[in-house]
Design goal:
Elements (H helix, E strand, L loop, with lengths): L4 H7 L2 H28 L2 H9 L2 H31 L6 H18 L1 H5 L3 H34 L1
Helix pairs in contact: 2-3, 2-4, 2-7, 4-5, 5-7
């Protein structure tokens, strides 16, 4: 693609900024998920108060937003890398990012089963999302290292 050098340079920062925002959003979605779990196991007045927070609806909404934006961020990061370099750099950052995209897709795909009360789906969802958060934190660190290389060039 024939893009101006300025556009090529600044386009490299959209993916990291978006992904850092998504990491924060992921942490908030995890908090909401923990509140859903807490609501499920509560009883009496505590349960009534927790239900008012509508944590289940909010968790589902934020999870849906995360799914869409994470897939878009993954594809966008690869596209910008390809546009600027004419190739993708196959390494741990790319492979973990693709793994995160697959994990969030599988995690979201479990929603219909969880809504029907399948405990195996709920536990798998939780495990996938904790693994996703761990990979996401590691991605943030390796992404900063990549950014530092871009800035110094």
């Amino acid at each position: 693609m024939n893009l101006s050098p300025e556009v090529k340079y600044w386009s490299q920062f959209f993916h990291p900024i978006m992904m850092w925002a998504l990491l924060l959003l992921s942490l908030y979605a995890a908090y909401l998920g923990l509140q859903v779990q807490r609501t499920r196991s509560a009883s009496g007045e505590e349960k009534k108060e927790l239900i008012k927070g509508k944590y289940n609806i909010r968790h589902h909404q934020y999870g849906s937003i995360l799914l869409g934006l994470m897939v878009a961020g993954c594809v966008g990061g690869m596209a910008v890398t390809y546009i600027n370099n004419g190739k993708l750099f196959v390494g741990p950052h790319l492979l973990a990012g693709l793994g995160m995209t697959v994990a969030i897709a599988f995690s979201a795909a479990l929603s219909p089963y969880m809504q029907k009360g399948a405990n195996w789906a709920r536990m798998t969802h939780i495990l996938l999302n904790f693994a996703l958060l761990g990979l996401f934190a590691w991605q943030a660190i390796t992404g900063v290292q990549i950014l530092q290389r871009i800035i110094t060039q």
